[in-house]
Amino acid sequence: MLNFEDYYALVQLYAEYTGALDQGEWDRWPEFFVDACLYKIVPRENHEQQLPLALLQLESRAMLEDRVYSIKEALFYAPYYQRHIVDNPLVRRVDGDVWEVEANYAVLRTKHNQLSDIYNTGRYFDRIRKTTQGLKFESKLCVFDSELIPNSIIFPI
Amino acid sequence: MLNFEDYYALVQLYAEYTGALDQGEWDRWPEFFVDACLYKIVPRENHEQQLPLALLQLESRAMLEDRVYSIKEALFYAPYYQRHIVDNPLVRRVDGDVWEVEANYAVLRTKHNQLSDIYNTGRYFDRIRKTTQGLKFESKLCVFDSELIPNSIIFPI
Amino acid sequence: MLNFEDYYALVQLYAEYTGALDQGEWDRWPEFFVDACLYKIVPRENHEQQLPLALLQLESRAMLEDRVYSIKEALFYAPYYQRHIVDNPLVRRVDGDVWEVEANYAVLRTKHNQLSDIYNTGRYFDRIRKTTQGLKFESKLCVFDSELIPNSIIFPI
User: Fold this and answer.
1) Record: contact C113-B147, CB cut-off 8 A
2) Is the ipTM value over 0.90, yes or no?
């Protein structure tokens, strides 16, 4: 099991992550990852059948930075707010400085002049590394429940 | 109050529980309970008026195992995914190895080719025992908010 | 960072708070605050543009007690249940006995004979003081995402 200092850092990592995303601080997003990282958004059916299709797959921190550039400068989309609620993280495995952690998540969305709805629900399968700069994601896999692929997932999950 | 080791075990118990259910690992469900357990799903109105009606009442681990068998082999239902999000557990009482814990929960549901919706919200009223095999539920009472009883609650809450 | 005892008290504070509200224990609500407190519910757009408009602004514990009186005795409204789910609290700043804490929240609502819906989502920006009576809110700012102001927020968020 983790000691308190590590556990505290872990729950703060998730709280920092969702806070940064939901407040629209896109530039902070890549900073949660190591350089040689993997970020994927995958439908649950494909994940469970081990099919390779991903809705989004980014294979380095530089690609995450590109994605941030797209969000801020290139993509056209109707603006919306996100609000993540993440369940208590489950520490599946502690292997020295590398931890495997899973957590259920729900992303609620609010469009201009509309009521909030459920945008995306699923489970994070994360690999976290304890570095001298604090905890960082080595990989973050977002496995979402809906087979009805949203026409656009613009912002990170 | 709980010490850190016990608190960590508690939040991991909830995270394990919701993870097992939402990933469809039904066989693991009874393992979260002691043999002489009580599992109930009760509408809030009945709970607050102390009326006995429950939507589901199982009075031993063997009955939970029967329920798992029904889910896997006997019941007919349209498949759906569940996704639990549980609030921080409130430790109401610590009496040696028996703890009374409450927590708000929401279960989001995703049916095939449909958007996710709110399936069930409510509050757990749990009695947890610290055993040599780890923490186990002695009783788990799921008090749900909606008076509109869903036509079928198939999977455990 | 907080030590375990303080962290435990913090998560229990949030769990107590949401539990008291969602079980309708309105008289307990002001007890979560110091006497000279501030409670505000603010739309996100106004908050981000630093516009002063608030949906509700209460500037002392006595005003919270008045609000409780209104809920119990004076306001007319169709009854509904609330169910808060709060993300892991982010400890933004620890300044001795005063802590700045943020947390995403979602409030799900269930009206009589209706399905549950998403009532309000947003983020708490809280200032918490460690007192001899335990942790108390000095200020609680509820910044909600929806521009579509609900026709009535009756109960505290």
Assistant:
1) yes
2) yes
